[in-house]
């Protein structure tokens, strides 16, 4: 999931990674061969999801951090990279969550939420709750993955 360094326009102030069309297609599963080797149950539960938001990067990060704290997560924020790592304790152990923003345009951000370590089914439950609480940040297109 390589994204080029640098920023678009005034995005340099918040340090979001920029993303070109090929990287976007790859992140959305365009030619992802790994899905061929997953079990049927694993295919139903995605390892990551993305959505597009017209909100400013600072607002997205602040809202995600607030929601994750309310859900009882331990959070580490990497400000320059617009990346946040959270750990949630579940009945089946800890589940890692990574939230990262990419600049697609000055006023448009690609938000990726992916699973770190931990049980994929616990992540799925956690992710559904998180996505519901972050629904107001989504653009009109909704989730893409």
Quick structural gist:
The chain has 145 residues and is α+β, with helices and mostly antiparallel strands.
Indicate the topology.
Blueprint: E1 17-18, H1 21-27, H2 40-44, E2 48-53, H3 57-70, E3 74-78, E4 83-90, E5 93-105, E6 108-115, H4 120-133
Parallel strand pairs: 1-5
Antiparallel strand pairs: 2-6, 3-4, 4-5, 5-6
Task: Explain this structure.
Strands 1, 2, 3, 4, 5 and 6 form a 6-stranded mixed beta sheet that branches. The longest helix is centred in the middle third of the chain and has 14 residues, at 57-70. A hairpin with a 2-residue loop joins β4 and β5 (93-105). The chain has one domain: 2-Layer Sandwich (TATA-Binding Protein). It contains 4 helices and 6 strands; from the N terminus they run βααβαββββα. Helices cover 28% and strands 29% of the residues. Mean pLDDT is 75; it is low at 1-13. It is an alpha+beta fold.
């Amino acid at each position: 999931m390589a994204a080029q360094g640098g920023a678009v326009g005034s995005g340099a102030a918040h340090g979001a990674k920029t993303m070109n069309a090929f990287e976007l297609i790859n992140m959305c599963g365009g030619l992802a061969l790994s899905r061929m080797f997953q079990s049927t149950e694993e295919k139903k539960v995605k390892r990551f999801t993305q959505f597009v938001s017209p909100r400013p990067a600072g607002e997205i990060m602040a809202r995600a951090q607030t929601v994750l704290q309310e859900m009882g997560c331990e959070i580490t924020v990497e400000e320059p990279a617009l990346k946040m790592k959270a750990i949630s304790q579940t009945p089946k152990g800890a589940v890692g969550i990574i939230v990262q923003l990419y600049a697609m345009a000055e006023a448009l951000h690609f938000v990726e939420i992916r699973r770190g370590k931990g049980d994929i089914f616990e992540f799925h439950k956690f992710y559904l709750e998180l996505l519901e609480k972050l629904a107001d940040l989504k653009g009109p297109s909704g989730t893409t993955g």
